[in-house]
Amino acid sequence: MATEYSSIARPYAEAVFSHAIDKDNLANWSEMLEFMATAVVDEAMSSVIGNPEFDKESLTKLLLDIGGGRINDECQNLVKLLVVNNRVTVLPEISAQFEALKNQNEGAIDVVITSAFDMKPAQEKVITEALKKKFSSGINISNNTNPDLIGGIHIKAGDVVIDGSIKGQLQKLANELGI
Questions:
Q1: In what order do the strands lie in the sheet with 153-157?
Q2: What predicted TM-score, i.e. pTM, was given to this entire model?
Q3: SS3 of 163, please?
Q4: Contact 20, 33 (CB under 8 A)
Q5: Which regions of the chain are under pLDDT 70?
Q6: Residue 1 lies in a domain
Protein backbone atom coordinates (compact mmCIF):
# COMPACT_ATOMS: atom_id res chain seq x y z
CA MET A 1 0.00 0.00 0.00
CA ALA A 2 3.00 2.32 0.22
CA THR A 3 2.69 4.04 -3.14
CA GLU A 4 3.68 7.54 -4.12
CA TYR A 5 0.07 8.56 -3.49
CA SER A 6 -0.21 7.17 0.06
CA SER A 7 0.08 10.46 1.91
CA ILE A 8 -2.24 12.23 -0.52
CA ALA A 9 -4.87 9.48 -0.34
CA ARG A 10 -4.84 9.01 3.44
CA PRO A 11 -6.99 12.03 4.43
CA TYR A 12 -9.56 11.22 1.75
CA ALA A 13 -9.69 7.53 2.73
CA GLU A 14 -9.99 8.37 6.42
CA ALA A 15 -12.74 10.93 5.80
CA VAL A 16 -14.73 8.55 3.60
CA PHE A 17 -14.23 5.74 6.12
CA SER A 18 -15.41 7.91 9.00
CA HIS A 19 -18.44 8.99 7.00
CA ALA A 20 -19.21 5.39 5.98
CA ILE A 21 -19.00 4.27 9.63
CA ASP A 22 -21.35 7.08 10.70
CA LYS A 23 -23.86 6.10 8.00
CA ASP A 24 -23.32 2.34 8.55
CA ASN A 25 -22.53 2.06 4.86
CA LEU A 26 -19.07 0.43 4.65
CA ALA A 27 -19.95 -2.24 2.08
CA ASN A 28 -21.57 0.23 -0.32
CA TRP A 29 -18.65 2.66 -0.11
CA SER A 30 -16.25 -0.21 -0.65
CA GLU A 31 -18.04 -1.18 -3.86
CA MET A 32 -18.30 2.41 -5.12
CA LEU A 33 -14.64 3.20 -4.49
CA GLU A 34 -13.50 -0.04 -6.08
CA PHE A 35 -15.66 0.62 -9.14
CA MET A 36 -14.39 4.16 -9.61
CA ALA A 37 -10.78 3.13 -8.95
CA THR A 38 -11.10 0.47 -11.65
CA ALA A 39 -12.52 3.05 -14.05
CA VAL A 40 -9.68 5.49 -13.39
CA VAL A 41 -6.92 2.95 -14.11
CA ASP A 42 -8.53 1.84 -17.37
CA GLU A 43 -6.13 2.53 -20.23
CA ALA A 44 -8.59 4.67 -22.19
CA MET A 45 -9.56 6.66 -19.11
CA SER A 46 -5.91 7.19 -18.14
CA SER A 47 -5.26 8.85 -21.48
CA VAL A 48 -8.23 11.17 -20.95
CA ILE A 49 -7.17 12.05 -17.40
CA GLY A 50 -3.64 12.83 -18.58
CA ASN A 51 -4.81 14.93 -21.52
CA PRO A 52 -4.44 18.65 -20.73
CA GLU A 53 -6.91 19.51 -23.47
CA PHE A 54 -9.68 17.66 -21.60
CA ASP A 55 -11.08 20.22 -19.14
CA LYS A 56 -12.16 19.48 -15.57
CA GLU A 57 -15.84 19.92 -16.31
CA SER A 58 -15.73 17.37 -19.13
CA LEU A 59 -13.70 14.94 -17.01
CA THR A 60 -16.16 15.27 -14.14
CA LYS A 61 -19.11 14.65 -16.45
CA LEU A 62 -17.39 11.63 -18.01
CA LEU A 63 -16.55 10.08 -14.63
CA LEU A 64 -20.05 10.67 -13.27
CA ASP A 65 -21.53 9.15 -16.44
CA ILE A 66 -19.31 6.10 -15.96
CA GLY A 67 -20.42 5.89 -12.33
CA GLY A 68 -24.02 6.10 -13.49
CA GLY A 69 -26.33 4.36 -11.04
CA ARG A 70 -23.42 2.63 -9.32
CA ILE A 71 -22.33 5.60 -7.19
CA ASN A 72 -24.47 7.68 -4.88
CA ASP A 73 -24.56 11.48 -4.53
CA GLU A 74 -21.89 11.45 -1.81
CA CYS A 75 -19.48 9.46 -3.98
CA GLN A 76 -20.26 11.79 -6.88
CA ASN A 77 -19.24 14.70 -4.63
CA LEU A 78 -15.98 12.91 -3.83
CA VAL A 79 -15.28 12.43 -7.55
CA LYS A 80 -16.01 16.12 -8.20
CA LEU A 81 -13.68 17.14 -5.37
CA LEU A 82 -10.90 14.90 -6.67
CA VAL A 83 -11.22 16.31 -10.19
CA VAL A 84 -11.19 19.92 -8.97
CA ASN A 85 -8.06 19.23 -6.89
CA ASN A 86 -6.32 17.26 -9.68
CA ARG A 87 -6.36 14.15 -7.49
CA VAL A 88 -8.51 11.76 -9.51
CA THR A 89 -5.52 9.49 -10.17
CA VAL A 90 -5.33 8.90 -6.41
CA LEU A 91 -8.68 7.04 -6.42
CA PRO A 92 -7.09 3.55 -6.52
CA GLU A 93 -4.98 4.36 -3.46
CA ILE A 94 -7.97 5.89 -1.66
CA SER A 95 -9.86 2.67 -2.36
CA ALA A 96 -6.96 0.53 -1.11
CA GLN A 97 -6.57 2.54 2.09
CA PHE A 98 -10.33 2.51 2.65
CA GLU A 99 -10.28 -1.30 2.34
CA ALA A 100 -7.42 -1.52 4.83
CA LEU A 101 -9.36 0.62 7.32
CA LYS A 102 -12.50 -1.43 6.72
CA ASN A 103 -10.64 -4.71 7.25
CA GLN A 104 -9.01 -3.38 10.39
CA ASN A 105 -12.41 -2.31 11.70
CA GLU A 106 -13.86 -5.74 10.91
CA GLY A 107 -10.84 -7.55 12.33
CA ALA A 108 -9.87 -9.04 8.96
CA ILE A 109 -6.73 -8.93 6.87
CA ASP A 110 -6.21 -9.16 3.12
CA VAL A 111 -4.23 -12.15 1.97
CA VAL A 112 -2.90 -12.64 -1.54
CA ILE A 113 -2.05 -16.22 -2.44
CA THR A 114 -0.03 -16.74 -5.58
CA SER A 115 0.32 -20.28 -6.84
CA ALA A 116 1.89 -21.88 -9.87
CA PHE A 117 -1.44 -23.48 -10.80
CA ASP A 118 -5.11 -22.76 -10.11
CA MET A 119 -6.00 -23.70 -6.56
CA LYS A 120 -8.86 -26.04 -5.82
CA PRO A 121 -11.54 -24.82 -3.39
CA ALA A 122 -10.53 -27.49 -0.87
CA GLN A 123 -6.92 -26.28 -0.95
CA GLU A 124 -8.02 -22.68 -0.48
CA LYS A 125 -10.21 -23.69 2.45
CA VAL A 126 -7.34 -25.49 4.22
CA ILE A 127 -5.03 -22.48 3.74
CA THR A 128 -7.74 -20.06 4.87
CA GLU A 129 -8.34 -22.00 8.09
CA ALA A 130 -4.61 -22.21 8.82
CA LEU A 131 -4.18 -18.46 8.25
CA LYS A 132 -7.18 -17.66 10.45
CA LYS A 133 -5.50 -19.57 13.28
CA LYS A 134 -2.10 -18.02 12.61
CA PHE A 135 -3.36 -14.43 12.55
CA SER A 136 -6.32 -14.86 14.93
CA SER A 137 -8.52 -12.81 12.63
CA GLY A 138 -10.76 -12.97 9.61
CA ILE A 139 -9.14 -13.48 6.23
CA ASN A 140 -10.03 -11.97 2.86
CA ILE A 141 -8.30 -14.10 0.25
CA SER A 142 -7.54 -13.30 -3.35
CA ASN A 143 -5.82 -15.82 -5.62
CA ASN A 144 -3.35 -15.27 -8.42
CA THR A 145 -1.53 -17.73 -10.61
CA ASN A 146 2.07 -17.32 -11.69
CA PRO A 147 3.65 -20.25 -13.56
CA ASP A 148 7.11 -18.78 -12.83
CA LEU A 149 6.77 -20.09 -9.26
CA ILE A 150 7.22 -23.60 -10.72
CA GLY A 151 5.24 -25.10 -7.83
CA GLY A 152 4.08 -24.33 -4.29
CA ILE A 153 2.55 -21.07 -3.11
CA HIS A 154 3.56 -17.56 -2.10
CA ILE A 155 1.40 -15.90 0.60
CA LYS A 156 1.35 -12.18 1.39
CA ALA A 157 -0.70 -11.14 4.42
CA GLY A 158 -0.09 -7.51 5.30
CA ASP A 159 3.63 -7.25 6.06
CA VAL A 160 4.03 -11.02 6.42
CA VAL A 161 5.34 -12.99 3.44
CA ILE A 162 5.42 -16.78 3.41
CA ASP A 163 7.27 -18.10 0.40
CA GLY A 164 6.61 -21.80 -0.06
CA SER A 165 7.24 -21.74 -3.79
CA ILE A 166 9.83 -23.87 -5.54
CA LYS A 167 11.23 -20.72 -7.15
CA GLY A 168 11.63 -19.17 -3.68
CA GLN A 169 13.34 -22.29 -2.34
CA LEU A 170 15.73 -22.33 -5.32
CA GLN A 171 16.56 -18.65 -4.77
CA LYS A 172 17.21 -19.32 -1.09
CA LEU A 173 19.53 -22.21 -1.99
CA ALA A 174 21.33 -20.06 -4.56
CA ASN A 175 21.84 -17.32 -1.94
CA GLU A 176 23.24 -19.83 0.55
CA LEU A 177 25.61 -21.19 -2.08
CA GLY A 178 26.61 -17.68 -3.11
CA ILE A 179 25.50 -18.08 -6.70
A1: 138-145, 108-115, 153-157, 160-163
A2: 0.68
A3: strand
A4: no
A5: 1-3
A6: no
